[in-house]
Amino acid sequence: MRNYTIVDWFGYDLCPRERMNVIKSAGFTGVILLWTDQFDSDYKDFPHYAMEAGLYVENAHAPYIEANTLWEDNLIGHEYAKKLITCIVDCNTYGIPTLVIHPTNGKTPLPVSNIGIDRLKRIIDKAESLNINIALENMESPQYIEYIFSKVQSNRLGFCFDSGHHNLYSPDLDLLSLYGDKLMALHLNDNDNEKDMHALPFSGNIHWDNLSEKLKAVDYKGTVAFETRNTGFEHIKSADEFLSIAIKKAKAIL
Fold first, then answer.
1. Residue 107 pLDDT
2. What is the pTM of this model?
């Protein structure tokens, strides 16, 4: 049976426990968590809230604002690498199988560097020791993913395909054909090819029939996962109604 997950915050002002309950009631089987106190100070309680609601945690998203510093030879980059390792330890503690990380952040990342690869190797070593997967998400500069995969080999290192980022930053690059054999996570969302809207699939200009065929071509049997907000659906005031629309769209993809 196919699993369907959605990011735990999807645009409605509900407390975390209530968000989990309406996600479950809509027919989703799991959630994606943002593993930082940037928005919720009690984020480490979210796995428990999910379990209470009858949901599983598919993956957690690591803090990403400082991602470019991973490639810098300075204390900030060193501390950011330590932060990612702490996230891996947390994933092990809270039973989260996969951590999604950004290899870069923004349109002007630094050049690749040996220190960045050395840090990633230490991060992957920790992930291997705790049986946690690390999924690299495609960002503005997808060449970083190719470079990292060429330098770091591990069964615990894989790919997170973000459909919205692909549509914005690299629509002519067939990422699913390139890295479909490494696919560990999906961030499915739509946009207008101009802004990172995180809209529901079928509400922007992504060709979802083509994307579905590519997922089938790489024999993807994993979770259909939405990283979406209620962009374009703000007129729907009920979270339950919005999520009922979302689950129907999720089931239409695969």
1. 79
2. 0.97
**pLDDT tens digits for range 142-200:** 999 999 999 999 999 999 999 999 999 999 999 999 999 999 999 999 999 999 999 99
Q: How many angstroms separate the CA atoms of 232 and 222, rounded? A: 27
Minimal CA–CA distance to 207: which of 253, 161, 170?
253
Pair of tokens at residue 52 = 């209470």
Shortest CA distance to 6 belongs to which of 254, 136, 187, 165? 187
Indicate the average pLDDT of the chain: 96
Residue whose C-alpha is closest to residue 96's, from 32, 8, 153: 32
Q: Which amino acid is at 77?
A: G
Tokens 């968590």 belong to: 33
- Strand order of the sheet with strand 30-34? 183-187, 157-162, 133-137, 98-101, 56-61, 30-34, 4-7, 224-226
Bridge partners of 225, per DSSP, are 5
